[in-house]
Structure formats: C-alpha cells, structure tokens
C-alpha cells in the first residue's frame, strides 16, 4: 500500500498532489444459447418480449433451472483469470423493485461466488508499464429487462428479452491508479473473454459494461470515500468519466468538503458525472439464499477437464510470439490483442521471417485497414497474399519500396501478387549494366555534388535516391549503393 507512486500518475490540485484509486465491477454477458435459469433465447435484436419464458416473466409457480452451459462458461472464465474456482457456491435473492424486474428480486451470488481471487496482467501503452490487477471475485447473476420511456408521451414500456440472461460480474480490487490503467484493464479483460469465447465483449450492444468506482487520496494515505459510476458502456467513456470524477472529488476536498458515497451516472454529451442516488448498502437488498435453487456443486475433475481444453490465451500467445518469432514485446502484444490478428500473423509468418511479417501487418496492413474503417476479418489482403509479398521481397524480386506499391494494388484491386509483378513489370532491376548506366547518368549530371560527396560521404543517400528515381524504384538498392560508393570513391 505504501509503494512509491509514479509522479506521472498524480493529479496536481490547488493544494498539492492527488492519487486516483479505481476498482471496477464489469458485467459481462455470458455467451450461451439460453438464459441462466430458463430455455428462452438470448439472441439480440428480437421483437420486444419475443424471447421471454414464463420463468423470465416471473409467473407464479415457475421455478428456475440452472443452465449448465452458463456454469461451464463461468468456470472457464475463472480459469482464464487464473482464479480460484469454488466447487460449491450458492445463489441468493437481491431484493428490489423496478418495473423491468418482474420477480422483485435478482438471482445473484452474494456470500459464496463461483469464482474467487484471480489476476489480470495488463500492459499500459501510455506509461509503458505492466501492472497486475487483482480480481476479487466473479459471480453469476441474472440480467434485468429494459424499461423504455421515450416511445410514447405518456406511457412507458417494458421489454423482457434481456430478463434472465446470464451475466458474469467480475469485480477487481482497487488496484488501478489512472484512467489509462482502467482503460487498458477493460481492454485486456475483454480480449481474454473473447479468446475464451465466454462473452463477445460487444459494448455497443450492452454485452459488456462497467461500474467504475473512483476515489482520490493524498499519495501514501488511506483510501478515500468512493463514488460508483454505473453502467459505462464504452472504453473511451470509462476514461472520460474517471478524469471528470477525480477532479470533481479533488475540488470538493480542496474546498474543505467531504465526499458522499453515492452512485453516479456519466453523461457523455456533457462530459460529466451526476448523482443518481445515495449509495445503497448490501443490507438494503435483504439478501437471502434462494430457496428455489440448490447450492451449485461440481467436482475438481470437471474443472480440470475444462482447464485442459482452454484455448491458448493472450499472455501465453504473446510469450510464444516473442520466443518463436523473435518479436518485440510491443509488436507481440499488438498482434495478440485480437485473436483474428494473431491468427492472421501466424499464417503470414509460417515458414517466413516473423519480424518482417509482423512489420507488414502492424505498419502497413493495420494502418490501411484503419483508413478504410475495416478490421482484420474483412481485410481485402489475405494472409496468403501478404505472405507472397513478403516472399517477393525476400527473394529480391522486388524492392521494399515497390512492395508498398504492390501492397496498395493488391489492397484495392486484389489479385495474385506474383502475377501482378510479372504483368506490370515491377521486378527489381538486378542487371548491373542497367543500374550502372543510371548511376553514370546521375553522376554526369551533378558534377558539383560529386565534389561535395568526396568530403561528405553522407551525400551518398542523395545519389541513391536519384538513381532509384531514374529507375522507377526498381533498381536493387544494395547494388545501387555499392556501385555508387565505388564510382564516387566513398568508403
Ligand atoms: P458494491 O456492490 O457495494 O459496489 P463491491 O464489493 O461489489 O461493492 O465492489 C466494490 C468495488 O469498489 C470493487 O471493484 C472495489 O475494488 C472498489 N473499491 C473499493 N474501495 C474503493 C475505493 N476506496 N476507491 C475506489 N474503488 C474502491
Ligand atoms: Mg457495485
């Protein structure tokens, strides 16, 4: 708790430095066909109230039946978070009234969750640091329905399609110290969930949302009182909400005020948080064990079986990319951030120079896709095509410069890179006679530069550029270099 504080993370107030403390509760919708306690579909976008069983509508006498697939997914997620898996856990009723909660309570896990303590390793791009964020718990619970107030001037509507869908609530310890760290944490957690296939992480659809707990303190002092910002549904907004909220709290404290523990909402339009209600306490919900559900029990063999079939996760993949392909930590983490880009990379890199493959994907392909607003799964250049381009450079058939032109042609027009090179005469000129002629022409046309180059060998680059221009970029740059050095008498 008294670890030295990186001064870059501190916020300067009027009366000195402040440190932000953040802990997050992430609600992640479980990827499953059916809801947590009913057989109704979890499909997104159906007509209102078209995916609602009698259980989800809380008709009298209906009983919940646990969906084994949701349990399996929660265990797999726990394993992915290197967390303690509890072989016995229980379901509780969290009682409150809301029109979109027909049961009058949410079935959740309170005292004994299915997953206990774990951790997430997070690379923070802005600070260059790698931090470990401790996970406190992961529990299963039902989602609520949706109240709709803006369809009619005097009436409200309720859509229960979401009612009863399984959520995993993943609670972190208050280990985050900046908005950058918070954003990187959610991004990494989402990557892990997507690799596991346990949540699609689609924040636009509300399938992943964050309750962000923020407090501030003087560096090294006790934690301050937190405010909880509910249901933030984009990573950018998480960062903005934290920045605003921390400064709001600092302002109050520096004016001699105190922070009231409360629940707040972030308004992205105004860029501010506002109070929603004073903080409810656990006892307000009158939690008690749900008498309709037996404790959830399974054996270690079941957990071990799931552990054995876990896919390779981003941290392992990153380590393997660094070891097997000689990639830098940065390149490796960029590539493993999405499973699709990691797979794409491996297809290009197989049997080729891994670093060259990574460079092309990160520097050329990602940049170009970004410009078109596309992602790797809809890339107009396939891994096979990009592989062929890398081969053509490796075989000295084309120069790196021509390769960029070739890449652009393949990106916009498609086609077999080898055929394109052949047909459009893009092959590198390795015939020294032709290159020599171009060198001689440049030298003859620039006698005063030739004189200067004798005293200033760095001018060689200028000559190389001129010869490349003359040959339409097709001269082999190494041959040009060597010939020019000899002709200009540069060592
Ligand atoms: P609740 O349901 O009351 O919000 P939880 O225990 O589920 O309580 O979640 C508390 C969250 O608040 C955790 O993510 C925790 O890390 C975070 N937290 C606790 N104390 C602080 C604090 N002083 N500042 C910021 N975050 C905090
Ligand atoms: Mg909370």
Automatic annotation (TrEMBL):
Gene Ontology molecular-function annotations: asparaginyl-tRNA synthase (glutamine-hydrolyzing) activity; ATP binding; glutaminyl-tRNA synthase (glutamine-hydrolyzing) activity; transferase activity
Keyword Transferase attributed: yes
Ranges where the Asn/Gln amidotransferase domain occurs: 343-488
EC number, as in UniProt: 6.3.5.-
Listed GO biological process terms: glutaminyl-tRNAGln biosynthesis via transamidation; translation
UniProt keyword annotations, A-Z: ATP-binding, Ligase, Nucleotide-binding, Protein biosynthesis, Transferase
Coiled-coil boundaries: none
SMART domains tied to this protein: GatB_Yqey
InterPro entries in the cross-refs: Asn/Gln-tRNA_amidoTrfase_suB/E, Asn/Gln-tRNA_Trfase_suB/E_cat, Asn/Gln_amidotransferase, Asn/Gln_tRNA_amidoTrase-B-like, GatB, GatB_C_1, GatB_Yqey_C_2, Gln-tRNA_amidoTrfase_suB_CS
Catalytic activity: L-aspartyl-tRNA(Asn) + L-glutamine + ATP + H2O = L-asparaginyl-tRNA(Asn) + L-glutamate + ADP + phosphate + 2 H(+); L-glutamyl-tRNA(Gln) + L-glutamine + ATP + H2O = L-glutaminyl-tRNA(Gln) + L-glutamate + ADP + phosphate + H(+)
Gene3D superfamilies the record matches: 1.10.10.410, GatB domain, N-terminal subdomain
Pfam entry (one): GatB_N
Stated role: Allows the formation of correctly charged Asn-tRNA(Asn) or Gln-tRNA(Gln) through the transamidation of misacylated Asp-tRNA(Asn) or Glu-tRNA(Gln) in organisms which lack either or both of asparaginyl-tRNA or glutaminyl-tRNA synthetases. The reaction takes place in the presence of glutamine and ATP through an activated phospho-Asp-tRNA(Asn) or phospho-Glu-tRNA(Gln).
NCBIfam families (alphabetical): gatB, PRK05477.1-2, PRK05477.1-4, PRK05477.1-5
Family, as annotated: Belongs to the GatB/GatE family. GatB subfamily.
UniProt subunit comment: Heterotrimer of A, B and C subunits.
UniProt protein name: Aspartyl/glutamyl-tRNA(Asn/Gln) amidotransferase subunit B
UniProt source species: Microvirga subterranea
